[in-house]
Amino acid sequence: MMKKLSFIAAIFAVAIASVGCHCGRGGDGYTIEDGVIVFDTPARAAGQQSVLGLAVAPIETVRVGFVGLGMRGPGAVERFTHLDGVEIKALCDLLPERVEASQKILAARNFPEAASYSGEEGWKELCERDDIDLVYVCTPWQLHVPIAVYAMEHGKHVAVEVPAAMSLDECWALVDTAERTQRHCMMLENCVYDFFELTTLNMVQQGLLGEVLHAEGAYIHNLEPFWPYYQGNWRLDFNQSHRGDVYATHGLGPACQVLDIHRGDRMKYLVAVDTPSVNGKKIAAESMGAETFANGDQTTTLIKTENDRTILLQHNVYTPRPYDRKYQVVGTDGYANKYPVSGYAFRAAQVSKDLPDHEKLDEHSFLPEDAKRALMERYKHPILRDIEEKAREVGGHGGMDFIMDYRLVYCLHHGLPLDQDVYDAAEWSCIGELTAMSAAHNSAPVAVPDFTRGDWKKIDGYRHRMAE
Ligand SMILES: NC(=O)c1ccc[n+]([C@@H]2O[C@H](COP(=O)([O-])OP(=O)(O)OC[C@H]3O[C@@H](n4cnc5c(N)ncnc54)[C@H](O)[C@@H]3O)[C@@H](O)[C@H]2O)c1
Q: Which of 263, 265, 287, 388 gives the lowest tally of CB atoms within 10 Å of its CB?
């Protein structure tokens, strides 16, 4: 732990020293303030209103249209057939055969055939329909924002795969469009619904870990076997030309929820370091004939919050390593860790004597397995009490994808604010451009924009909204 803290301190010190000589000078669209690169915040346009806590009238039957039916989309179509109070009105993909394949999913589940759209701009016709409440987007990253903005402008709520946006301008486009149209824009960050994360969030909210000081997250997943299957090579194309942590949301989302980001705290600035691209460059040379590759094989980011807490993020989709999202939560009274071994650690005195093995508890190691299980059962999140069994049955990354869809539809049915708002989408997605900027400037600190434009303290703590 001490080793890790001194590493963190060293990175911050190097980063601050490295921009000392640039004070006062800025570039296009940013200034340098106290050694921190600060991107300009666009003024809120007349007629726009905050969507913090946005609730719309309950929607009894959620009518949905899906866009993007590649590796990810059809699973979402299938999961929706297990939800009550939904109608699947339309399916769209660039390729008509992929639409057909998803029609077969509907038929197999005894759902009526949906309207089919295909081609480059079929999604526009889908968004223009007047019998759809929700557009669910599983396309390549480059299309997320154009489709989401068009859908909101046509009165639809949108759910967009991760990352919702790929640049700061795109993040602001989502925020501004949601504020102008007063539509929901939820990023489909599924990892916040995984069983360990939800249970740990509940423990944090009940105070079991004390004050949370630090959290970690990552996307470490060797995509070597997957690169050839992204339609039109969109993902390798993007990484080839973009430096930074371009896929931060799976690691960052759960960390932000335990830290109440834009519900009492906010991410203030970050610093990033990256390694050379070796494997990424080799794959791109072989498959695309590329001579350069902007995305480092491993990118590491440190974030400091307004309340002085810290987040450590990692991104590596290139080297052979076991799948890892880290998810570590460091509190003054306890510790949670999901990968590579899931466990909790507390002071022995803190843990109730009716847990199994309480004599053996010791803050220098994880709770024994049976004590961990008993604790997780006791602190099971209310959402899991509702839906865990069905989620495990329906599946989707072990069930978390179904919980995500269930919660989205539940909140729409009950007219509640969604679990993830457009500010989450922007905050978790902006990391790509910010880390690229930091890495390109000797790990200079880069300010994280306040997408709420000053409202980040208005909500007191992160909570899922329940109908009761
Ligand atoms: N949350 C998760 O766990 C998770 C997992 C995998 C993928 N994803 C996300 O899902 C999205 C899709 O990823 P994927 O792995 O399915 O990629 P993919 O390439 O397999 O699928 C993308 C689909 O979009 C279609 N498409 C392309 N242009 C289109 C257009 N103009 N109109 C309509 N459809 C178009 C393609 O034909 C393809 O079928 C990405 O944003 C990715 O990050 C998320």
A: 287
